[in-house]
Amino acid sequence: MASNKLHISYNQIHQLIDYAVKRFHLGDDYSPDLMIAIGGGGFIPARILRSFLKAKHGRNIPIQAIGLSLYEELPNAGQDGVPEIPGVQVTKTQWLNFGGADSLVSLLGRKILIVDEVDDSRKTLVYAVAELLKDIRAQEIQAGMNPGESNTEIGIFVVYNKDKPKAEELPEAVMRHYYPAATTPDRWLFFPWDCTTDISVHTELSKQAM
CA quadruple 14, 37, 130, 107: dihedral positive or negative? Predict the structure, then answer.
């Protein structure tokens, strides 16, 4: 019987993202010009993904960071022996930066790719898309456009999609650009950035699950 805890190594994540870029023809069939990483699990995958996309077209895609939390704030949650427990409401802790010299000037007309490490209940992704659509609509109004006239597109990249019923559904237009690098049964995914003990032991345990 398979363990309910899956150790995942940095190498495995790197390889999964490489494979996904090739399998989904990312950068060709869907070529994002803005990535939005959901913190904290989406930061490292977004940075790796950007390198693979740069290798295709020779340009760095800007990455914006947002902070969303669905998991209960438990002491040491996510660390060795302490699984995270999904909550019921998404909390926004950080959003897009529209101010300052290096701010994002406009979302309009872009191909946006939201990046996270896992699609679990889907609540976090649905929330992120809904809030992003509000920003897009506000910018369209400011530009004197009708809804959807900017032809802004949103896609999603996750390292792991959990094969389970989802609490909420994404818009059909977004699901057309939904890219899971891997699909796994519903279990505890123990990512390397959550490891607070010996990372070499964590890596060895990840090999046992292969």
Answer: negative
Is residue 100 over pLDDT 70?
A: no
φ/ψ (deg, to 5) at 79: -90, 180
Output the six-digit token pair for 149. Answer: 């006239």
Q: What is the pTM of this model?
A: 0.89
- Taking only Cα atoms into account, the Rg of the chain, rounded to an integer number of angstroms, comes to 18
pLDDT at residue number 111: 97
Which amino acid is located at 76 in the chain? N
Cα 70 from chain centroid? 14
Mean pLDDT (the chain) is 89
pLDDT of residue 10: 98
Please tell me which residue in 120, 163, 194, 198 is annotated as part of the active site: 120
> Is-contact 160 180, C-beta < 8 A?
yes
SS3 assignment for 2-32: CCCEEECCHHHHHHHHHHHHHHCCECCCECC
Cis peptide before 40 (omega within 30 of 0): yes
pLDDT, one tens digit per residue, over 122-165 is: 999 999 999 999 999 999 999 999 999 999 999 999 999 999 99
Q: How far is CA 5 from the centre of its chain?
A: 21
Cβ atoms 63, 46 nearer than 8 A: yes
163 has catalytic annotation? no
